[in-house]
Amino acid sequence: MFHPNEQPMERGWVGRIDGDRVLHLAAQTLQSFFLGGGGAREHAEYAAADVTLLVPVIYPPAVRVFDSEDAFEFANPMAVRGSGAVASAPGELILLPRLAGVIGAEGAIGGFSLFADWRAPASARPKDRDFCSVLGPVVVTPDECDGSAVSLAVRVDGEERFSTLFGGFDWDAARALAAAGTELRPGDILVSPASGRIDGLQSGTNVELEAQEIGVLTTTVAGT
Fold this sequence. Notes:
By secondary structure, the chain is mainly beta. It is 7% helix and 46% strand. It has two helices and 18 strands.
């Protein structure tokens, strides 16, 4: 999802990134793009430098955060924000970097994105994650990234804190558990176990998650 820099909008348009171009597609949301089989016609073309990326899935139907393939917790869909979001909660914050699978058509995973799981230890669970989760910057389809081996680096105020190769999570098993007894809808988000943890992040801190396969996801901490 994006908007041209000279035409700001809250929800934005669906786009496909093609090198240094962004192609505006004829779909209202990423969910409708998946439901339409991914064959939306192209509208205008923009230079990537001339657009702002927004949260790929606005108000997802459900967000399931996994600790393993056989255990998950629900998170607040209304707290999902896009790259550049401000994470504001009392006290110092904790970052749990994760990978997200976004459900597409027919209950299958339609693509992968980065997910910054922000926690506020000053608040009791489950309110400690009920304020901001950051998704983005884009959703990469499985032909480009299958979620099995994703290189991830985390930087705090420009300094790399750690880097790792995310892998070993059984996305098929997680999807099957999520679907058991219910229906997965396009835009549902399945979130992997954390690939690390950074504590004590203070107000004014800028944090970046970067995966070569997906892009850079940014958050600014604003403790209260």
